Amino acid sequence: MNMMNPDISLSKEIPEDDTRRQYYYIEKAKEYVRKESEEIGRPLTFCVTTFGCQMNARDSEKLRGILEKIGYQEAPEETADFVIYNTCTVRENANTRVYGRLGQLKPRKKENPHMRIGLCGCMMQEPEVVEKLKKSYRFVDIIFGTHNIFKFAELITERYETGKMVVDIWKDTDKIVEDLPNDRKYFFKSGVNIMFGCNNFCSYCIVPYVRGRERSRDPQAIISEIRKLVADGVVEVMLLGQNVNSYGKNLEHPMTFAKLLQEIEKIEGLERIRFMTSHPKDLSDELIEVMGQSKKICKHLHLPVQSGSTRILQKMNRRYTKEQYLELVAKIRKAVPDISLTTDIIVGFPGETEEDFQETLDIVRKVRYDSAFTFIYSRRTGTPAAAMPDQIPENVVKDRFDRLLKEVQTIASEVCAVHEGTVQTALIEGVSEHDSSMVTGRLSNNLLVHLKGSKELIGQLIPVQLTECKGFYYLGEMAE
Ligand code: SAH
Ligand code: SF4
Ligand code: F3S
Predict the structure, then answer these.
(1) pLDDT digits over 192-215, tens only?
(2) Distances in Å between the alpha carbon of 337 and those of 1, 106, 334, 372?
(3) What whole-number distance in Å separates Cα of residue 89 and Cα of residue 380?
């Protein structure tokens, strides 16, 4: 059966199988949307705004796919009838932003009787958030979480049928529902979920609480999704998971991430493979070897270190020491000499002393990252770190953060410059935002290059001479 167009009839019973059931609700919602559009004499429009990580970005593509299937058309947020915020809660400021944006939507909803507001994603998995919304944000129409995104059409139907606020949050799930529609942002590259959830419980992190236990997708489902994507024009995939290195451990027939990569590598027509995120504690020698031999895996590894102090790493429950991390980096660089390394660092974890912070600066100087995301520690209710003594005063954290950022940026611009003059393959991703006579391409090592060219090049892999390093990106020209 072709799942993209399963034969579904509204006059028959609601199917039991999850995928078929959702196609039933897609048909049903489509009817309601058609009627409403006819009434107002124009199509209904939607806008999905994503907060947070690539996992959320991928989920948003699924929401867009469903909305388009039921007859909504995409529009800018300012004019959209249906505004959906796919939220993140990894740091407090992500939450604050959502409340702010919601406040701005309220008057618009009063003016437009066809307006709907949907909230989903990680923030909705926090019971306090949902309580607050139910109490003080009654104008929201649909609230759902991270585990039941696939039910979107069913929830829209329920909203039409009850006329009331629909709230559906699951605490956890073991379900993985395959083969639903999705609308990709780029025709030539795509994210592919390989696993969901996280079991690591780093002591500062809320993700395991809002994304549930770790579940790996069946390798055959992953391979067949990628084959379809390639047939559809995709040349680069980004394999997504909170900790891809522990892929496959809980499958009925366990399989390592390295083995999965080897299987994906065999897919003809696929040119590039990326993945994120790798947890240092689970990065195996097997994976390093596979990366060293691969022709398709990109020369880039995002390897979050979080802190350079072994004492803090232990309190963070990261389960590696500074020395182990450095050894791992040495091993990777030996197997893949020109690999670009990037990382995440948290400053101001409870109990972090100036000495601990110096250890972080030291590891940054030793590894010399191509780039690093630096974060100020954010206290997340319910995590072990939130209850730890010695929360660091704001001014101390801010000072450390500034010093770290400076170090990271100085090193990154030096590291970036080493490729100047070389010829590398770039995947052209779009017309340059600053100059419409130029296009922007991404190198295997994840750096961007801007070169003369027009939109016909988008989606193509072309050799580019990197003529000038501009700190964090390159200027280049097409090479012969
Ligand atoms: N699963 C990935 C990353 C998930 S969140 C991993 O383990 O690497 C992305 C980044 O947000 C983390 O790497 C961490 O640096 C940061 N982060 C997570 N919780 C945080 C918190 N409470 N305060 C500040 N930064 C945090
Ligand atoms: Fe959070 Fe740690 Fe899981 Fe990453 S590995 S999502 S930082 S708990
Ligand atoms: Fe945020 Fe959820 Fe990703 S909390 S970082 S969107 S997994």
Answers:
(1) 999 999 999 999 999 999 999 999
(2) 46, 54, 5, 19
(3) 9
Ligand 1 pocket mutation pick from 88, 319, 346 by most atoms within 8 angstroms of CB = 346
Instruction: For residues 179 and 20, give the distance between their C-alpha atoms in angstroms, rounded to a whole number.
Output: 9
56 CA closest ligand 3 atom index:
6
Expressed in angstroms and rounded, the spacing between residue 106 Cα and the centre of ligand 2 is 34
Q: How far is the CA of 385 from the centre of ligand 3 (A)?
A: 18
pTM for this one?
0.95
Structure tokens that stand for 333 in this block:
């660089």
Pocket around ligand 3 at a 6 A CB cut-off: 52-53, 55-56, 88-90, 122, 207, 210-211
Give the span between the Cα atoms of 22 and 15, in whole angstroms: 9
End-to-end CA distance of the chain: 46
90 Cα–ligand 1 center, Å: 7
Which residues lie across from 449 on neighbouring strands?
Answer: 441, 474
How do residues 256-283 score in pLDDT, each as one tens digit? 999 999 999 999 999 999 999 999 999 9
Question: In whole angstroms, what is the distance from residue 8 CA to residue 5 CA?
Answer: 8
